Amino acid sequence: MEVIITKQDSVMTARLIGRLDTPAAQEVSQAVEPLIAAADGTIVLDCQEMTYISSSGLRIFLTLKKAAASKGGKVIVKGISDNIRQVFMMTGFLNLFEIED
Amino acid sequence: MKQKEPTVNSFLRRSRWTGLMLVVVAAITLEATSIIQFFFSQKGIQQEAALRAESELESTQLEILNVIDQAESAVRNNMWIARWCLNFQDSLSLVTSRLVEDNPVVMGSTIALVPGHYRRHPLYAPYSYQLPGQDTVYTKSLATPEYDYPSQEWFTKPIELQEGYWSEPYVDEGGGDILMTTFSMPVRDEHGVIAAVLTADISLDWLTDLVGNINVYPKAISILASRSGKLMVCPEESLIMHRTVQEAADGLEDTAAAHKIAHAMLSGETGSEDIVYRGKLQHVFFSKVERTGWAMSIVIPDSDINGHLRRIGSVVAGLQVLGLLMLALILLSYARNQRKNQELTEKKNKMESELHIARGIQMAMLPKIFPPFPERKDLDLYASIVPAKEVGGDLYDFFIRDEKLFFCIADVSGKGVPASLVMAVTRSHFRTTAAHENSPQRIIRLMNDVMADNNDSNMFVTLFCGTLDLATGQLIYCNAGHNAPEIVSAEGVRPLNVLPNLPVGVLAGMDFQDQETYLKGGETLFLYTDGLTEAENSYHELFGEQRMEEALHPGMGAVEQLRAMHRAVHTFVGNAEQSDDLTMLCIRFLGSVPDAGDGRRLTLRNDIGEISRLQAFVDGIAREEQLSDPVASSLNLALEEAVTNVIMYAYPKGQEGRLDLQATRRPGELEFTLTDSGKAFDPTAAPVADVSLDAQERPIGGLGIFLVRQIMDKVAYRRTDGKNILSMTKHI
C-alpha cells in the first residue's frame, strides 16, 4: 500500500494506491497523521487506485472523519470502486462521507 | 563382590596346586624314564666294554700263541734230528744254528746235554744265536763254569716235567737287555732216556708293542705278567721284570682289590674286577695266556666306558631341568594370566552391570508406557528402541500439550556411551525447550544454539521434531538432518517432504524452517533412525528404504506396524550382528477432522503478516470456483475480518498460536471453517454495529465482525475440545 499526500491551498489530498487490508492499515494510519493535523480544512482521500479495503481501513477513514467533524473540516472520498462502494454501503459509510467519482 | 572372593581365591589356589602337581609328576616321570634308560644304557655299554676287552684279550693271546707255536714247532721239528745227532757230538751245533737260521722268531737255540752224557765232555751245550739286526748266526758254548747250565731253570724244568717248558721271561744281558723267554724240551736217546734239552730263545720285544698297543679305549692300559707274576709289559717301564704283580699291588691305594686281581691272574683265572686307581674307578679284565702260563689284563678307566654316557646323561638331565623350568614358567604365567583374566572378567562384569544400569536410566528417560494416551481416541502411538550396544545414541520423545502432540526422533552421531550421554542431553534440551515453545523450528533452533555452544566433542544429532494438532491433523515439523519420515495413507506410502537442514549441534545461530502438512484421520506418520534402513545382513546388503516402505501398511495399528517392521528387519538381517541403534516411532492420527474434500486448507500463525497468504488462498478458491469479482472481493473481506479477529485477540500477546481455515464446496454454497485454540470467543454473540449513527456517535471498532455477518449468508460458532470453530457459509 502506498500513500502519497499532496497539499494544495487548504486541501490535503491522500492518494491511496493498492490494498488497504489489515497489515497495510497499520502503516497507513501513521502515514495519514498529517491529515488529522489538518482536519480543519478539506481532506481528499483519492481512492481511484485503491483496490480493496477492510474494516481496519474503514477505521482510518472514520478516524479522519471524526477528526474533521470535531475541527470543522470535511472529508471527501473520491473515486471508489464498485466493490468498495458495496462495503461503504454495508457499513453506512456512504452516509458519512462525501463521495465523489 | 565380597562373597565372590573365596571362590576366586580357591580357584586360583587350586589352579596353582594343579600346576605344581603337574610339574612334579612330569619331573618324576621324566627322571624315572631317564634313570631306567641310563641304567640299561650303562649295562649295555659295560657289556659291550667287557666283550671288547675279552675279544682283545683273546686276539692278543692268539697272536702270542702264534709266535709261541712257531718257537715250539721249531723245537719239535728239530727234535728227531737232535736225537739222531746225539751220536755225533760235533754235529749238534749244526742243529742249533740251523734252527736259528730257519726260524726268524728264534733268536737263539742250544742243545744242552745232560751232564755226563759224553764222557769226554761232561758238560756240553753248543749255543747258536743271532744278534739283533744281524743275519749272522754265531755259535758258542754255554758249558762254562760261571753259567752252570745244568742248574738253570730252562734245563731242569723240562727234565723234571718230562715235557716242553716255557721259561720265566728274563732279560738277556749279553744280547742287549732284551726280554727273552725260552722254550725247552727234553731230547730222548734211542733208549728213551732223556739225554739233552733242546731250546729256542725268542725275543719278547714284540710283546711290548703287541700288548702295549691294545687300544680298546683311549686311556686303557694293558699288563702282561709272567707265570710267577713278574711284570713283562706294563706302562711303567721301570717296573718291568723288577716287580711282580703282587708287589705292584702293594703300592696301590685299593690294595684289597689289587691283591684279589693279582691272585686271580696268578691262578690263571679269566674274569673281571673293579678297582679304584688314582681316585678313579677302573674296570680290570684279565685272562691267562695258554701254554706260557702268563696272565694278561686290560685296565679300562670307568670314565672311558661310561664317560660318554655320563656326558650325554648330564646333557639330557640339563635339558630336562630346562624343560621342567620352562613348564613351571608356563604354568606360572598361565596361572597369572588366569588371575588377570579373572580380574578382567570381574572388571568387565562390573562395567557391564554399570552399563546395564545406565541402559535402564537411559530407557527410563523415554516414554515407554504404551499405549501412552489410552484415553485418547484420536491418536494411536507406539515407539521402540533397540540399541546396538548396551546404551545407544538414539532417542524418541513425545508428549501432549495444548491439544498438540509434540514429538521428536533423534540419532546422535556415534554409538555407545559417548552417544548415550549426548542423547541424554538432547532429550533434556528437547523437554525443556518444547515445554514452552510451540514451533518445531524454534525448538530446534534453541536446542541447536545451546548444544553447538557446548559441543567440544564435535558430536551432532540428527533430529526430526514435529507438532501434530490433534484437532485438525495439522502437522508442523522441522527437520535437522534426519531421515524423512514416511506418510502411510490409503493412497500409499510416501516420504514426507522435508528440507534437509543441518543437524543439531553443528553450528550455533543456524536458521531452521518449519514445514507443514495435514494428516487425515487414519494416516500414519512413521519415523525411524538410519539403524533401520542401514540394517545389514551377512552379505553387507542394506535393508533400504524400499524394503521399509514395503513393510508399511495403511490402516495397520501402531503396535502391529512396528512389530511387522521388526519382523521384516529380522528376516532380512538373519544372524548378522546389529550394527547400529534402531529406533522407530509410529504416530497414527485417528482424529475426525472433516475431510476438506478437495483439500483446501490453510493454516496461519497469529501474525498479521499472514494476511497476504489468506488473500492468495481466497483468490485461488475464487479462481477455481470462477466467482465474480465482487463475490471474491467480499469473501476476501469477510475472511480477513474473521481471521484478523483471531490473530489479534484469540491468543495472549507474545504467545504463538495457530489458526486453521478450511474451505468446503457444496452445491450452491461455499463453507469456510475457521478453527483456533485461543480463548473462547463467539463472534455471533457480539452486538451488531449500528451503521445508521453519524460519525461522532459511531465507535471505531466492531466493524469487522459486522462485515463477516453482512457478507456471509450463514455464520455459526461452536466451541469444541478447547477450540473455537467458526463456520461461515456463502451462497454462490
Topology:
The complex is a heterodimer of chains A (about 100) and B (about 725).
Chain A: E1 2-8, E2 11-20, H1 22-31, H2 33-37, E3 42-53, H3 55-71, E4 74-78, H4 82-91, H5 93-96, E5 98-100
Parallel strand pairs in A: 2-3, 3-4, 4-5
Antiparallel strand pairs in A: 1-2
Chain B: H1 4-77, H2 79-85, H3 92-102, E1 106-113, E2 126-130, E3 137-141, H4 153-161, E4 165-166, E5 170-172, E6 178-188, E7 194-203, H5 205-212, E8 221-225, E9 231-233, H6 245-250, H7 255-266, E10 271-277, E11 280-289, E12 294-301, H8 302-365, E13 379-386, E14 394-401, E15 404-412, H9 416-434, H10 440-453, E16 461-469, E17 474-480, E18 486-489, E19 492-495, E20 515-518, E21 524-528, H11 530-533, H12 544-550, H13 558-573, E22 582-589, E23 601-605, H14 611-624, H15 629-649, E24 658-666, E25 669-676, H16 703-711, E26 714-720, E27 723-731
Antiparallel strand pairs in B: 1-2, 1-7, 2-3, 4-6, 5-6, 6-7, 8-9, 8-12, 10-11, 11-12, 13-22, 14-15, 15-16, 16-17, 17-20, 18-19, 18-21, 21-22, 23-24, 24-25, 25-27, 26-27
Helix pairs in contact in B: 1-8, 9-10, 14-15, 15-16
Give the averaged pLDDT of chain A, no decimals.
91
Number of helices of chain A: 5
Indicate the radius of gyration of chain B in whole angstroms: 67 Å
Question: Which CATH class of chain A?
Answer: Alpha Beta
Strand content of chain B: 15-25%
Shape of chain B: rod-shaped
Question: Of all protein chain pairs, which has the greatest interface, and how many residues does each chain bring to it?
Answer: A-B, 27 and 30 residues
> What is the 3D form of chain A?
globular
CATH fold group of chain A = Transcription Regulator spoIIAA
Low-confidence stretches of chain A: none
Briefly, what CATH class of the domain at 366-589 in chain B? Answer: Alpha Beta
Radius of gyration of chain A (CA) equals 12 Å
